[in-house]
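ok new one. same drill as before - structure tokens go in, u give me an amino acid for every spot. 163 of them this time. try not to just spam alanines like last time pls lmao
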């Protein structure tokens, strides 16, 4: 059932013909096939609402999904998405705390650059644009075909001129 369930969820996300509310309804319908407190179903329901701009409804669903035991990349995705949601709801300090923890402990994670991007945005929202630029440049540096060391060095220098 999981492969079929995942495939149907992926199809809903890929269907550009659906408007935001149709996508929410379609995700809810598929999610209802799982138990009410299933973390994966809660995560998908949260994401649909988040994508539709209904952050107030997405926030408790993300929290329930994380409390329910999401793990691996899905947990990281949920942290990123929850942090983005709470930032959009004006809870910048909470977004920073969530993302700082994820950023500092997940350097080997496949979604580390995504964490860095949202951490940089939260830093800018908090008024610390220089630190945000530093985080973003550090994430970008390894992907550059040239100047990797220079950009990484400049990123460090932004926050520590003695570096």
């Amino acid at each position: 059932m999981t492969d079929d369930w995942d495939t149907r969820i992926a199809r809903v996300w890929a269907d550009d013909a659906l408007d935001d509310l149709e996508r929410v309804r379609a995700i809810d319908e598929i999610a209802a096939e799982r138990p009410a407190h299933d973390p994966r179903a809660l995560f998908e329901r949260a994401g649909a609402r988040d994508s539709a701009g209904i952050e107030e409804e997405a926030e408790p669903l993300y929290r329930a999904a994380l409390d329910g035991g999401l793990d691996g990349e899905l947990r990281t995705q949920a942290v990123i998405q929850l942090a983005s949601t709470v930032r959009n709801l004006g809870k910048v300090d909470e977004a920073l705390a969530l993302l700082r923890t994820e950023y500092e402990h997940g350097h080997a994670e496949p979604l580390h650059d995504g964490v860095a991007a949202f951490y940089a945005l939260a830093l800018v929202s908090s008024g610390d644009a220089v630190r945000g630029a530093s985080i973003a440049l550090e994430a970008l540096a390894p992907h550059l075909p040239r100047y990797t060391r220079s950009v990484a060095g400049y990123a460090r220098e932004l926050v520590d001129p003695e570096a």
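The longest helix spans residues 72-88. and btw The mean pLDDT is 95.
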